[in-house]
């Protein structure tokens, strides 16, 4: 009887973990460039002496949904929508290089280009991008950053840097706890995108289907309730069996 209890318990645990993933997706359904996190379960045979008849349910991080989100025109020169397979390089909190498709960029008071979460955007040499005082700014399709200096005319527009936009295979990307993607093989750095890498004045929306996520949340809740009922009935059966054994004894 304990086999049913353990299987139901691990199934309930996996359902709770999957609910946490879906909740995270729903919370980011309006976050530009967010990629839906995927969750799955797999059978996990319990090893040990005797016949391996006990198989538990194990929650598995299945990566992220690669689908491109809808495009939203904003007209803001610092809003970027990256091409499929392209990722913007940023500096994470620990100083390492990480990647994102969240292209809603801003400038700090000292002219540093950062993401909405405050991560510094990197240039093609891997250094944080600093923008000099200007009256107009433009980001080209290849990631080049140009400005018109204060008090100057349009003819003085000059390139001051180029954003580091890399071509990263999805199989070599892994999401960290901070929501940023990282290279699973740092010994093989990603290459700079050649040619068109992005569009300025646009944002890629989150690819989370909010309605579908809500339906999934309801299904997971029902699964959890069913697994809890199995645990409850298994415990009641065990108590009844113990009572019968005591009476027969």
From TrEMBL:
Keywords: Bacterial flagellum, Cell projection, Cilium, Flagellum
Location within or outside the cell: Bacterial flagellum basal body
InterPro entries: Flag_bb_rod_N, Flagellar_FlgE/F/G, Flg_bb/hook_C_dom, FlgE/F/G-like, LlgE_F_G-like_D1
Flagellar basal-body/hook protein C-terminal domain segment(s): 200-244
Transmembrane segments: none
Gene Ontology biological-process entries: bacterial-type flagellum-dependent swarming motility
UniProt xrefs under Pfam families: Flg_bb_rod, Flg_bbr_C, LlgE_F_G_D1
Residue ranges constituting the Flagellar basal body rod protein N-terminal domain according to the UniProt record: 5-35
GO cellular component terms, A-Z: bacterial-type flagellum basal body, rod
Chief site of localization: other
Residue ranges occupied by any Flagellar hook protein FlgE/F/G-like D1 domain in the UniProt entry: 87-147
Stated family: Belongs to the flagella basal body rod proteins family.
Assembly notes: The basal body constitutes a major portion of the flagellar organelle and consists of five rings (E,L,P,S, and M) mounted on a central rod. The rod consists of about 26 subunits of FlgG in the distal portion, and FlgB, FlgC and FlgF are thought to build up the proximal portion of the rod with about 6 subunits each.
Name of the featured protein: Flagellar basal-body rod protein FlgF
Native source organism of the sequence: Stenotrophomonas acidaminiphila
Gene: flgF
